[in-house]
Amino acid sequence: MASRTPSASPTSARPDRSGDVHGRGRSGDRGAERPRRRLSVDERREQLIAVALELFSRRPPEEVSIDDIAAAAGASRPLVYHYFPGKQALYEESLRRAGHELAGRFEEPADGPLSERLYRVMGRYLDFVQSHGPGFAALLRGGSVAASPGTSAVIDEVRRAAHDQILAHLAVPSPSPGLRLAVRSWIANAEITSLEWLADRSVPLEELQLHLVQEFVAALTLTAAREPALAAELAGFFAGERPDGPTGRLVRDLAALFAAPGIADTVAALASGSVPPAAL
Amino acid sequence: MASRTPSASPTSARPDRSGDVHGRGRSGDRGAERPRRRLSVDERREQLIAVALELFSRRPPEEVSIDDIAAAAGASRPLVYHYFPGKQALYEESLRRAGHELAGRFEEPADGPLSERLYRVMGRYLDFVQSHGPGFAALLRGGSVAASPGTSAVIDEVRRAAHDQILAHLAVPSPSPGLRLAVRSWIANAEITSLEWLADRSVPLEELQLHLVQEFVAALTLTAAREPALAAELAGFFAGERPDGPTGRLVRDLAALFAAPGIADTVAALASGSVPPAAL
């Protein structure tokens, strides 16, 4: 069972909540004349979102109640309802924040080998997955009771941010539909792989990080094999890579595999177009 | 706008619905003593499901009403409610049928090169995607108003059926977690690719069919590069392939790409572990 320790600061759990005005309309006084109170309206709203995000990260949305959020925030149930019409609204708002934070992690300076940039981004992404595990899983698995057009929009936005960042780093002038599709498919792969990892955590996170980057390199190569116009881009990509980076390691692993007995001959036969012995 | 032409047989649209008993309890007489009526209880139920599936295939669930289903089935609204408590129940039942049909399309005899078996399966899968387009898209895009734990269960079952069929064809005695993950990721790739294709239909379906199979071959190869225990399996896989099949064509496309100027040297440098000129 996930911990129920609230993440809010200790002061916010005190019974003194005189700074909050219950039952006040949304357009009411925003408290400019109350300099001594503990939390302003904006601060309280932010605190509720932060507490909700923490709880929704630890448990699927159906296992988090408004009472849980109120207790973790050191607030009353009516106070929570004063700020948000219900759990769904609070869920969607905390999700928007999480999505925004995740999208921010995709930003990376355009310096150094491309696979190493992606490797750093994937490190930040997987760190996010790890720290928001159950909430991330409930969200992406779909069919959650809290899934809605609003939550889908957040997911779509995060996927779009990932897609746009990758294309910006690839710096291909007009990316073809095939290249865009390869990027989107790889993003789906990263999601599935993260979900699987959350369920069993069977390998070290660093291994996942490396594998995902190498799968991107493979997807890029496959796309270039289909679209000769991309060959020059791929040449540029490989030229920027280092032997000890994710691409260099992948190339060596594949070279070793294709040197294995039984593979070299068969693949060479397929490459030359002749029929391999076993198929006769 | 999608066509509203009902798929039900012309007879079912006649005003004569004397065979149906409105307002009867679920445990009531199942009509064994009424041999002359047009549709038995079971037949009517099946007809409603078939009509609903047809409508849900053409439009997202939120754009299909019980009235639409009743009209297309030549039935009254109360009659539909007699068989199903509401649209969601009818949606989930029609989805279960569709899922069952789709899972059936994954079955393929264990004869011939593996990539050609998968190519045939993908032909049947893409044919399904094409004929159930909008419904398939609404379902997989998630966040649909009709998404529920019930619909998720159907999607999960179809994915599991695909996964199990592929592993059965690969015939690896105890598939590693890495191999299982590669299969699941590839299934996600097939879903994303189908959704993209539905949105723009920019390439012929046969091209997609070939690309998806080749991506599977690439995923299998990448997994073997990481897991030396799979090298023998991969050798067996390649040995069973034919030059004019999806794998043979992929091998030749990749061989041509790696022979391109700028790529051969750079990749060879990465393979040998030396630093390529551009990285200095």
Structure commentary:
2 copies of one chain form a homodimer. With 280 residues, the first copy, chain A, is mainly α. In chain A, 64% of the residues lie in helices and 0% in strands. The first copy, chain A, is built from 12 helices and no strands. Chain A has helices spanning 41-58, 66-73, 77-83, 87-105, 114-131, 133-141, 149-170, 177-200, 205-226, 231-239, 246-259, 264-272. In chain A, helix 1 crosses helix 6 and helix 7 packs across helix 8. At the A-B interface, helix 7, helix 8, helix 9, helix 10 and helix 11 of A face helix 7, helix 8, helix 9, helix 10 and helix 11 of B.
Query: How many helical stretches of chain A?
Result: 12
**C-alpha termini separation of chain A:** 58 Å
Largest sheet of chain A, in brief, is: none
Oligomer: homodimer
**Poorly predicted parts of chain A:** 1-36
- Name the biggest interface: A-B, 74 and 75 residues
Report helical residue fraction of chain A. 55-70%
| Main structural class of chain A | mainly alpha
| Rg of chain A computed from alpha carbons, rounded to a whole number of angstroms | 25 Å
What is the arithmetic mean of pLDDT of chain A? Answer: 82
DSSP strand tally of chain A: 0
Order of helices and strands of chain A, N to C? HHHHHHHHHHHH
How would you summarize the topology of this molecule?
Two copies of one chain form a homodimer.
Chain A: H1 41-58, H2 66-73, H3 77-83, H4 87-105, H5 114-131, H6 133-141, H7 149-170, H8 177-200, H9 205-226, H10 231-239, H11 246-259, H12 264-272
